[in-house]
Each structure stands twice: as structure tokens, then as C-alpha cells.
Design a protein that fits this description.
CATH architecture: Orthogonal Bundle
Largest sheet: 2 strands, antiparallel
Radius of gyration: 14 Å
Strand content: 5-15%
Number of domains: 1
Structural class: mainly alpha
InterPro entries: Fe_traffick_prot_YggX (IPR007457), Fe_traffick_prot_YggX_sf (IPR036766)
Distance between the termini: 46 Å
Protein name: Probable Fe(2+)-trafficking protein
Helix content: 40-55%
Function: Could be a mediator in iron transactions between iron acquisition and iron-requiring processes, such as synthesis and/or repair of Fe-S clusters in biosynthetic enzymes.
Family: Belongs to the Fe(2+)-trafficking protein family.
Order of helices and strands: EEHHH
Shape: globular
CATH topology: YggX-like
CATH superfamily: Fe(II) trafficking protein YggX
Number of helices: 3
Oligomer: single chain
GO molecular function: iron ion binding
């Protein structure tokens, strides 16, 4: 039987992750409080954040910004995690 968690993203019980998806205490917190579906939603948002802010996962400064966005998106903490201001999905008119 799959492990379930109360997902902080979905605000309901859902199937949990198989292992922490990120290193350290943040990864453990995500494992305990974010579902597979919630993590998938984060990965979709992450792609937008990286592209819109021109971040690099090879740059330690960018990793710090990404983690702040991650905490904002997954747990509603801090000022980051939302879509970049003025962002419009491809194909959407201004």
C-alpha cells in the first residue's frame, strides 16, 4: 500500500513520495509533507521560474533562489514561489 501524506500543496491526503527529492532537512520536510502530485506541480513551476529568471542549476546563487521559491511554493512561506510578475503562459494573449 502506498504511503500517504497530508500534502501542503494540495491541502489533502495524497500518495507520498518514495524518498526525499532534495538533500538535507528541506528534502526530509518535503518527503514528509508533500505528495507526488504536489511535487509534480512544483517541478512544472520550477521550469517556469528557472526560465523566466534565467537561473542556472550549476550556480550556487541560483540554487539559493530556487530553494526560496521551493519553500514558498510548497509551504507558503516567504515572498517567493509564485509565478514571475507579468508571466503569461505561451499562447495566452496579454
Amino acid at each position: 500500500m502506498p504511503r500517504t501524506v497530508y500534502c501542503q500543496v494540495l491541502k489533502r491526503e495524497a500518495e507520498g513520495l518514495d524518498r526525499p527529492p532534495h538533500p538535507g532537512l528541506l528534502g526530509q520536510r518535503i518527503y514528509e509533507q508533500v505528495s507526488r502530485e504536489g511535487w509534480r506541480k512544483w517541478l512544472e513551476r520550477l521550469a517556469t521560474i528557472i526560465n523566466e529568471n534565467r537561473l542556472s542549476t550549476a550556480d550556487p546563487g541560483s540554487i539559493e533562489v530556487i530553494e526560496r521559491h521551493m519553500v514558498g511554493f510548497l509551504f507558503g512561506e516567504g515572498e517567493l514561489g509564485q509565478l514571475p510578475e507579468g508571466f503569461r503562459p505561451p499562447g495566452q494573449k496579454k
